[in-house]
Specification:
The chain is built from 13 helices and 16 strands. The protein is α/β, with parallel strands linked by helices. Helix 4 (76-91) crosses helix 5 (106-117), helix 4 (76-91) crosses helix 12 and helix 5 packs parallel to helix 6 (132-145).
Length: 394
């Protein structure tokens, strides 16, 4: 699906856009004395208002964009997820669904349709979306795909602070939170930042400050095998406050995250000494994440132990942790595939089978992607983790 092949040339509009974003970042670099932490570069490249990758209007999702997420592959993904949402909404006595970073709106449309079939619609379907362009696209898709349910959807600028019940979901969102990049050396840690050098952005490392060194000691110090000199990796300082914000008003229910990542021990294993930072541009994997700022996605794998710890700090319990394949199997993948295939011709069935295989095969999304649920006030186990729960590995 995503390969490190030769990148296509930029259009004139794309070249102008990335120049604007680069100029914005260069002003920050100059104002800071010639160097900024990588986290700041990533924040600006992805989220600078009106300029960043997720803030501007370039197409990002689907065949015409830079990557394809599970909801764009097949509605079967949403229909399995709906099984978990319906169960949780029943356990909370109804309530709302909150989706963070809804992309094209395909997941919201398919979830609403599936929940309506189950007579399990939420009172409201909230979408937390920072991009005005994506809000417009989501609104149009929902009106087109589920016109009778679109009025149930409302867009938010922040998670609700007032008490609410239900489920918050985020599919491929945590991986896009800005990360700190670091190196391990004989003296401790170095913080990797960005400078402007020879007419391009380049990485440059400095001794880590006290705060970052303490954060890394807390996370790496208890590992079975501490990373050795030369190790490079990422640390996401935003996961814990991000979860805390989502959990703040949740009276009863769950936060459900699906993303690619690992528990902490394998995440920082010596065999992963180059980290997981990468970029995506038109379905190509990009090694130089500093190039074409504003035009390419920048992402890092998720430390799911960090997610669990963030949940604990916010008063939430880990209600389950599983590979995406196991989660989908437990929520009725076989049943949903059979139902979706029933009236298709041979060619369409083959395409559907290929899409589902991408969701569950170990070499595709099946093992790289994980699902984790953080719950408050739920006593019964969640269906999505009944096949195999890996929470003990966190």
């Amino acid at each position: 699906m995503l390969t490190p092949m030769e990148l296509p040339a930029l259009t004139p509009d794309e070249a102008a856009q990335t120049e604007r974003v680069a100029a914005r970042i260069r002003r920050e670099v100059d104002a800071a004395g010639g160097w900024i932490p990588f986290r700041q570069f990533m924040q600006l490249a992805l989220y600078a208002p009106g300029l960043g990758y997720y803030s501007a209007g370039a197409r990002k999702f689907g065949a015409a964009g830079d990557f394809i997420t599970a909801p764009e592959l097949t509605p079967v993904f949403a229909r399995c997820l709906a099984t978990q949402l319906a169960e949780t909404l029943a356990a909370t006595g109804g309530g709302n669904v909150l989706e963070a970073g809804a992309g094209t709106g395909a997941l919201a449309a398919d979830l609403l349709a599936a929940l309506a079939e189950r007579d399990a619609l939420p009172e409201r379907y909230w979408i937390l979306e920072i991009s005005a362009d994506l809000r417009d696209r989501q609104r149009r898709l929902l009106v087109d795909r589920v016109p009778t349910l679109a009025e149930r959807v409302a867009w938010l600028d922040a998670p609700p602070a007032s008490p609410w019940r239900g489920v918050a979901i985020a599919n491929e969102v945590l991986d896009a939170l800005p990360v700190e990049r670091f190196q391990v050396d004989q003296h401790g840690y170095r913080q990797v930042g960005v400078e402007w050098w020879q007419e391009r952005f380049a990485f440059a490392a400095r001794p880590a400050g006290e705060w970052l060194a303490r954060q890394l000691d807390d996370r790496l110090g208890s590992l079975p095998e501490r990373p050795a000199t030369g190790f490079e990796g990422e640390f996401s300082p935003l996961i814990r406050p991000w979860i805390a914000e989502f959990a703040r008003g949740l009276e009863r229910g769950a936060l459900l995250f699906v993303d690619y990542g690992l528990p902490r021990a394998p995440y920082y294993h010596p065999s992963r000494a180059a980290g997981s930072l990468t970029g995506f541009f038109r379905h190509r994997r990009v090694e130089d994440v500093l190039a074409r700022p504003g035009l390419q996605d920048i992402t890092a794998w998720v430390d799911f132990t960090e997610v669990a710890e963030g949940g604990a700090a916010a008063g939430l319990d880990v209600a389950g942790f599983a590979t995406q394949a196991h989660f989908l199997i437990a929520t009725g993948l076989e049943r949903e595939l059979a139902a979706a295939s029933e009236h298709l011709d041979v060619a369409a069935r083959a395409r559907l089978a290929q899409a589902v295989a991408t969701l569950v095969m170990p070499g595709e999304m099946g093992e790289r992607f994980k699902a984790i649920a953080l719950a408050r006030g739920l006593e019964a186990p969640l269906a999505g983790f009944a096949f195999r729960d890996l929470a003990a590995t966190l």
